[in-house]
Model the fold of this input.
Amino acid sequence: MDRINESSRILVTGASGLIGSALIWALNQRGCTNIIASDVLDTTEKWRNLVPLQFDDYVEADQLLERFVSGGLENFDFIFHLGACSATTEKDASYLIRNNYQYTQALCRWAITQGSRFVYASSAATYGDGEQGMSDTDSNLHKLRPLNMYGYSKHLFDQFAQRHGVLDSIVGVKYFNVYGPNEAHKDDMRSVVAKAFEQISATGTLSLFKSYKPEYPDGGQQRDFLYVKDAVAMTIHLAESETAGGLFNLGSGEARSWLDLAHAIFAAMEREPDIKFIEMPDQLREKYQYFTKADISKLKQSGYNEPLTPLNEAVADYVKNYLIPDHRLGDETGA
Done:
């Protein structure tokens, strides 16, 4: 597989989102600017994430496939398809099928026809409650049971690619709990780091959900937190790998508690921890995950050996260089 360099022709969908804009930022660090950025900017403020970035052209997502068909876009060496409706609360199943499943089908077919390296965002939500495991080496995708329509829309394409014999020639990435700069537009879908920073700034206190399982103390529920800068480094590595194919878990490979994260946030803000535990809404209790940890052995076997940013360092970078000064990736003092 070719290395990504200044002459590489690259398409990034979901370009203004958290991971998409971070990916373009990372490509810019390599001197890559021959990039077509695509997204649905709608009425949010996520367009601000694109302002500091360098790319050749921008195309709205609903025009992208038309441009392919009409010959209005050149062939790409690399296609990073990160665009999707990622709201786990979205109830319009038909919309999710069109936007997350059928759109990915069409773009994948075009990529394969043109000989482009195709990397797309699957989702850790395809694993559901984890009872069937969270292994990216298990070929029996049919046994997975996503808990929401978003996860199912992603799962459908994973299965489609497997049935049609193309999954091993493309890369699907399953991101675990990504956080970092350029997520302000996500509102309630922002990471706990972003929401906690806002809450602590306003009140001096952070509220966390109580635990309803005796084996987990309050604040002891655990997640695999992945800094967005590490997430895009992993994604670029898989795009360039000659042997990487199929589905890959992308996480830190480490489970850390909400209390660990909370203390890191308070430390980055140079404040003494003040944490209170609140009741979890009834509608969340049945579906709440108490533990997630990505098995990233397959990623490591692909040759990825870069050190991961420790949680405290990642949170400090995010808080001090981006949240406090309200900077985005690519801003002169935050790059």
The mean pLDDT is 93. The first helix runs from residue 18 to 29. The longest strand covers residues 35-39. The radius of gyration is 19 Å.
